[in-house]
Amino acid sequence: MAKDIYTIGVAGAGMWGKIHIDMLKQSGRARVKWVCNRSLESSWAAAAEMGIERAARDFGEITQDPEVDVVVIASPPYTHAAMTVDALRHGKHVLLEKPLALNPGEAAAIVAEAEKHPELVVLEGSGRHTRLNPKFLFVKSLIDSGRLGRIYHIHHNHLMQGTFIEYNPKGAWAMDRALAAGGPVMDWGEYDLSFHLGLLDDKPELCSLKSFSIGGLRSLGEAAPNVDVEMHAAAYMEFSGGLSYYYERGAGVHLETRCETRLYGTQGGLRFYYTTWEPNTVELFYAGEKPAREVFEVDMSGYPANDNLPFLAHFFDCLDGKAEPVMPVALAAKHFEILYKILREEK
Q1: Each residue of 174-210: pLDDT tens digit?
Q2: 22: enclosing H helix or E strand
Q3: Strand pairing partners for 251?
Q4: Alpha-carbon span 141 to 159, nearest angstrom
Q5: Are residues 122 and 139 located together in one domain of the fold?
Q6: Which domain-ending residue is among 75, 108, 127?
Q7: Based on the domain organization, do 243 and 143 belong to the same domain?
Q8: Could you tell me if 8 and 69 are in contact, meaning their C-beta atoms sit under 8 angstroms apart?
Q9: First-to-last C-alpha distance (Å) of the chain
């Protein structure tokens, strides 16, 4: 049943947990009652900093509180499956950060539990930069219009010299595969697949892939002494319907490229940068009487500068019964399994 104010508990008081808490407080739709972190001391420190009523080390204290309607799980991936299952079994709606889980078995456990509770909303975080983005809607409308013909190939690459540690200096856990599932492929891959496969109505099914992944390209010193995640990976994938997809991600690589996507169709092609902070141009290439090129500017004027705001608004719409999750966990699990195969392909 829709409410004006939802009572919420947040798991994780690191960078992303605090972002969620701040966005929830700005929304005017949330009472953030609980925060939970690795230690009781750090939980209470976050509660004092963010103005939250209660703190806990044990996530179960949140799920057992009958006042709590929603839990936001913004803790590292190795905690996601157990927390999500516990929350659902206690009748709580869930906003779950990406990546979905640590391995396909845990992802399957999340999906299976969610299927037992169709009355509960479970939204996964890889819809954030993607399916609510005006660029996604614009590009999809071009594809759906038939102007590109059949999409037969996707090419995407984004390489950075910096790593997660430069972005989040306290995020050393993200460099440990046992805690994070992977490096840049897991950090950004769910966004990439959410955008690209969503353009094709999520119909393509993976048939085969060939990949490489490599780590150890940079030493991160004391900031992250135990680094065993990939820093660079790429895959050539074949999907049903005659679709191929070249995918490349890197952080800590000795090269820089922009977050560029190219779509190749039988009647036209597109080049664009899907993130909202990149240029809003979409280039269309096609052949009429002679080869031609058009450049479109995607209208971003009504879209907030912070992708978290429309994402959270969408979550509240789902809670209110006005929308269905743009990224349900079953779809996130499909993307997660592809990424897992990229990093663990038998060589």
Answers
A1: 999 999 999 999 999 999 999 999 999 999 999 999 9
A2: helix 15-27
A3: 160
A4: 28
A5: no
A6: 127
A7: yes
A8: yes
A9: 51
